Each structure stands twice: as structure tokens, then as C-alpha cells.
Amino acid sequence: MIRNNLFYKLLALGVAIGLWTYVNSEQNPRARKVVTVPIEMRNLAKGYTSDPDTREANVTIEGLKAVVDSVRREDVNAWGDLRGLKLNAGVSTGKLKVRASVSGVSADDLNVSVKPEFVRVRVEALSGKRLPVEVKFLAAPPLGYAYADPQITPASIGISGKVSQVSKVTRIMLPLTGANPNRPIDGYFNVVPVDAKGSVVQGVELDRDKVRLRLGFVEVPATKSVIVSQNIIGQPKYPFTIVKVSIMPASVTLEGRPSALMPISTVTTEAVSVQDATETITREVSLRIPTGVHVVGNNKVRVTVYLSKKETDNGKKEPETDSSKG
Fold this sequence. Notes:
CATH class of the largest domain: Mainly Beta
Oligomer: single chain
Strand content: over 45%
Shape: rod-shaped
Order of helices and strands: HEEEHEEEEEEEEHEEEEEEEEEEHEEEEE
Largest sheet: 7 strands, mixed
Radius of gyration: 49 Å
Number of strands: 26
CATH architecture of the largest domain: Beta Complex
Structural class: mainly beta
Helix content: 10-25%
Number of helices: 4
């Protein structure tokens, strides 16, 4: 009898518990949801930056439906603690456990889990330096001119970022694009950080991205080949006449400012007199050079004036002589 009563008592207890569970689940149902949030890196040392291999975590929340439904995305946090990671002056790596919590809710009211459970993180020291700005000329100046020394304000730019990227930057370049190469320049231009090969370095910050450039032109010496013209004065003694004039060299090279060279096509010699001459004359004379230019090389030429007698009444020529011989 007692045994039968115990059986019924246990059966009644089981039915009561089941009934309570059923009623409770209907009135206070349970729920589950997954919230995706960024993984925060906490306790990062000053002067360093962190880069986890996974930037987001899926946080699973389980509990009473009323409690789960009250949780907003901004209430959910996921993080890794960098406090115990050993750092050096360059790059450090480590494996961190990802932790999660829900703000504003008691930890006893929810079951919280997170995936991934671990992340690998790269921690790198920050660095900075200043470099002068250099102009990269992409077009040639006008013919006969050169660019003057550029005036850049400010003359240098500060850069900052990860030490691995900052160390790659060797120059701050101003590519001179969009400017008329035939006119003086005064304007603001973008600058970029480049490495030793001239490639742009990404992942660094500049304290300013534009500078003012003032750039003018200066004339540079140019050269020009011109013909040497004779300058013969006087008349030979009758019956002699001039039959030919030879100048060696026949042309010379002048050097000077382009504006001074442009109108010059010939230069003349100093005067060579043949007044009352009776024989061929050879003289070494200087050249008359216009102001603002000069001769490249020797400033003297050799002028030879060839004379010949006119025919006499009997149709014969008198023999000529040459003063350049003997």
C-alpha cells in the first residue's frame, strides 16, 4: 500500500513540475538572438596602434524573451584586453581572448557567448618626422628659360603613422600638374608622401595636404651659329680689283640670352683696308660682337682679299702678287 502511494505521489509531483514548466514557458518564454558588434581593443598603450585579424564578433544572447528583446545593439560589447601583451619599439603580435558583455542587464539573467573566441592582433608603434617639400616638374619651361628656385610655404611637412609606413617615406613630393609652364606660378598644390622609388606611400597622415608654390623663370644662356660678314674698306690701286674675299672660319657660335641672340643672324669683322693695295691681302682681325653676347672660342678670323689686274689694251693681264707669301 505504501509502495503504491509513493508511486502515485511521485507521479503527481512529476505532473505538477511539467505543468508548472509549461505554464511558465507560456507566460515567460525564452529567446535567443545573435548581435554582430565591433571588437574593441582595450588597454592599448599610448603611442601604439592595434590591428586585429578579425574586426567583428557575433555575440549570442539567451534568456527570457522579455529580457532578450530589451537588449539593443549598442548594449552589447566585445573586446580583447591588450594589457598583458609584451610590446617593443616596432611591431608586436599576440593572441587575445575575445570577451563579451551586455550593459544594463544582470549577468544572471542572460547566457552570453561570443565567436570567435580568440583573435590575433598586431600592435605597432607610432612614429613621425618632418621632411622638406620637393617640386616634381612634369613640363619643360619655355625655350631659353629655366625654372627659378621654388618658394614653398611651408617648406616642410610633418608625417605620422605606423612606424613601418613612416620609415618608407623618403620625400614629400609636389607634382606640378595643372599649371601653365609658360607663365610664372603662384598657387596652392597637393603634396604626397613617396618612397625612394617615387611610389606613393599609403597609411600615413600629413599635417597638411597643400602648400603654396611661387615659381618664376630665369633666362639661361643659349647658343646660335651665325655667318661672318666681310667689312672691306677702300679701293685697290688701279688697275687692280677685288676678285674674291675669303673668311676663315666662315661662321662662329655666339652665346648669350635668348632675347639678345634672337635678332642676330650675322656678325661683321673689323675693317680690312685695301686702299691703294697692289697685291692680295691677308689679315687676322677681330669680330664686332653685339652687346649681350660673346663668341664661343676665338674672337678673331682670318680675312684674305684676292686682287687681280684688269686686262690691258692688248688683252693681257699683269701678273698679281700675294702679300701673304714670304
